[in-house]
From TrEMBL:
PROSITE patterns: ABC_TRANSPORTER_1, ABC_TRANSPORTER_2. Gene3D superfamilies: 2.40.50.100, Nucleic acid-binding proteins, P-loop containing nucleotide triphosphate hydrolases. Keywords: ATP-binding, Nucleotide-binding, Transport. It holds the Pfam family ABC_tran. GO terms for molecular function: ATP binding. This is ABC transporter ATP-binding protein. Belongs to the ABC transporter superfamily. The keyword Transport applies. Residues 4-234 form the ABC transporter domain. PANTHER family: ABC TRANSPORTER ATP-BINDING PROTEIN (PTHR43875:SF14), MALTODEXTRIN IMPORT ATP-BINDING PROTEIN MSMX (PTHR43875). It comes from Roseibium algae. The lineage of its organism: Bacteria, Pseudomonadati, Pseudomonadota, Alphaproteobacteria, Hyphomicrobiales. The keyword Transport applies.
Length: 362
């Protein structure tokens, strides 16, 4: 069942149109991540769903009800912001109970909900403390708790972890995932951190310039990005992009990357013949390339090592291949030296090909 439905949503700030006739359906219990670079409109979209902005055109439905003109408090949503927005003079317990008291809930019910949220978030021992006596991670837990006690259908998160250091962020990310697995509420989560998106989401909506570029499961977005923007935005280290031209012949297509340098597209999962002679961009992730000292039987090209970056478990080896530079994830601990002559093999089943003029996937 659809939990949140956004229909033909347009939002303008004065003459600046930030969201353009946007449509989005989010299933009940789904963890949907809105991902994109700064300024792409993801917080604006979340704020529209929350009712914090008056939309210019379109409609929003939550749990089947048209809430387009409803007040935020009447939408059945709980929101968690990047800034914890806790009341500094109140204890954790009071921060959690405040909204419920205003809503007129009976004392017993309030106590029950706080107890449950405190247990889920492991903050039972912190209930009497003030926000200033908490760490950043604990404060963010309380902020999540405040949304939790409202007993809502839909949680909205706006970059809730971005104020935390990397280690804490990784810990809370796991906790959020666990929380979603236990509660099974619909969650809409804004971030510009692709790791957060890939690890948390059931589906990711990648946005650019107020438009959803791709809405898909994380691995589909990772393996089959619909355009050059999505391909470049997702993945760290980034996908390698090699400019070339497409040559379709009787024996199959290939990409000409330079004089005497061509990569056969045998194994690529789409028809490419109709792009014969056109400029294309061949995209391949560092982990879908293999370096060998000797030529292999697969589609491989000679390359020269520029440098090796050790990354702990493995390393990133930068290669020069004619006029192209590319990085390869290698199971190596400093065995490559600048100037080493190697061969690089391409995993075509995981490669991407883009039309250089439209930047769309072929
Ligand atoms: N109140 C406002 N008045 C005018 N322009 C605004 C307002 N709020 C946001 N904008 C503009 O709308 C666009 C989208 O902003 P939004 O905050 O939604 O982006 P975002 O993708 O969430 O970025 P970030 O990750 O930096 O928060 C930006 O160009 C921003 O400058």
């Amino acid at each position: 069942m659809t939990s949140v439905s956004v229909r033909d949503l347009t939002l303008k700030f004065g003459s600046l149109e930030v969201l353009h006739t946007l449509n989005l359906d989010i299933d009940e219990g789904e963890f949907l991540v809105l991902l994109g670079p700064s300024g792409c409109g993801k917080s604006t979209l979340l704020n529209c769903i929350a009712g914090l902005l008056d939309i210019s055109e379109g409609q929003i439905f939550i749990s089947g009800k048209n809430v387009t003109w409803e007040e935020p408090k009447d939408r059945g949503i709980g929101m968690v912001f990047q800034s914890y927005a806790l009341y500094p003079q109140m204890s954790v317990e009071k921060n959690l109970s405040f909204g419920l008291k205003i809503a007129g809930l009976p004392k017993g019910e309030i106590a029950k909900r706080i107890e449950r949220a405190a247990e889920v978030l492991q903050i039972q021992s912190l209930l009497k403390r003030k926000p200033a006596q908490l760490s950043g991670g604990q404060r963010q837990r309380v902020a999540i708790g405040r949304a939790l006690v409202r007993d809502v259908d839909v949680f909205l998160f706006d970059e809730p972890l971005s104020n935390l250091d990397a280690k804490l962020r990784a810990e809370l990310r796991v906790e959020l995932k666990r929380l979603h697995q236990n509660l099974k509420n619909t969650m809409i989560y804004v971030t510009h951190d692709q790791i957060e998106a890939l690890t948390l989401a059931d589906r990711i909506a990648v946005m650019k310039g107020g438009i959803i570029q791709q809405l898909d499961a994380p691995l589909t977005i990772y393996n089959k990005p619909v355009n050059l923007f999505v391909a470049g935005f997702i993945g760290s280290p980034s996908m390698n992009f090699l400019k070339g031209s497409l040559l379709a012949q009787a024996g199959g297509s290939s990409v000409l990357l330079g004089p005497d340098q061509s990569v056969s597209l045998d194994g690529y999962d789409a028809q490419t013949d109709m792009f014969n002679g056109q400029d294309v961009i061949f995209g391949v992730r560092p982990e879908h390339l293999t370096i060998t000292r000797e030529a292999t039987s697969g589609p491989n090209l000679p390359a020269v090592v520029e440098l090796e970056e050790p990354m702990g478990a493995d390393s990133l080896v930068w290669l020069r291949l004619g006029s192209h530079s590319m990085s390869v994830r290698a199971d190596s601990a400093g065995e490559y030296r600048p100037g080493d002559k190697v061969f690089v093999t391409f995993d075509l089943a995981h490669a991407s090909l883009f039309d250089a003029s439209t930047e769309d996937r072929i």
